[in-house]
Amino acid sequence: MSDTVLSLEGVSKSYGGKQAVREMSFSVKRGEIVGFLGPNGAGKTTSLRMALGILSPDTGTVSLFGKRPNAAVMRRVGFLPEERGIYRKMTAEAVLVFFGRLKGLSAGEARKRAHKRLEEFGLGDAAGKKIKELSKGMAQKVQIIAALIHEPDFIILDEPFSGLDPVNQKTLEEMVRKEAEAGRTILFSTHVMEHAERLCDQIVLIAKGKKMFDGAVEDALASVPRRVLLEAAPDHDLAALLSPLGEVTEEGEGEDGHRCWRVDLAPGSDAQSVLKACVEAAVKLSRFEPVKAHLHDAFVHLVGDEAEETLAEETA
User: Fold this and answer.
1) pLDDT of residue 94
2) pTM score, two decimals?
3) Whether the predicted pLDDT of 308 surpasses 90
4) Cβ atoms within 10 A of the Cβ of 2, count?
5) Residue 174 contacts by C-beta under 8 Å, 6 or more apart in sequence?
6) Cross-sheet strand order for the sheet of 154-158
7) Rounded CA Rg of the chain
8) Whole-angstrom Cα distance, residue 162 to residue 160?
9) Cα gap 84→134, rounded to integer Å
10) What angle do CA 310, 311, 315 make, to 5 degrees?
11) Is 43 in contact with 191 (CB distance < 8 Å)?
């Protein structure tokens, strides 16, 4: 049995002459949590729709559980689309039973699983309420449950955290971890890097429809130049002292008139090298702070300034 659950090879898609996805290739292995990351409009949703057979690629091939996407294979998949929408006049229980039946469950089993999942998501009292009577966040959680009701082997979530408040985002993160612990494979798209940094084994970074990085989270973080922030007495010029260790930038004035500095470390240098140089030169430091890289920093480093501007607009 192959360990590859999903594979895209050289997949491209255009709309009206505009290329949305360009020669996209990546794979998802059994048991992984994979983040599909990029700004809105980067091509994430189009790629996921091709992965599921909802859209046909102009070029390239898609393999889902070793086969072209089809109805039989899709019974092993749970999918939360980016566009939220479930039947507003149905009760939460009825919606979940309906989706469970579509995936081959008996009515009794679907109802049993619906109540169990509603309780897990804190919606036990909402089973008999119509969707239109629920808050937006509650309705979204019902739709997430609908994607999981048949206990799929492979879960695909398109921007699942969008529209959820911080408490419910945490609940969803816990659900993702729980599903992974149960042996399920998970692929989710997002433009919010913090979720992926906390959850993912592997990530795929895309921008303007093109893959920019594909690998482990720690490898993406390792690509970011390491940085140290310093504050020193005004009579010390750290640029001359620390330039052999990396790129040194003065960043204004701190407390008590101290000068603020940033050191982007060169390959082979580390924070301890900076501290040692300062101690040997008798520099009076009021701040010494090695900066931990985050996935947002890795995205900007790997994709470029334009992606940073787009992400800043989306998270403002």
Assistant:
1) 96
2) 0.82
3) no
4) 10
5) none
6) 77-80, 154-158, 185-190, 33-37, 202-207, 210-216
7) 24
8) 6
9) 14
10) 125
11) no
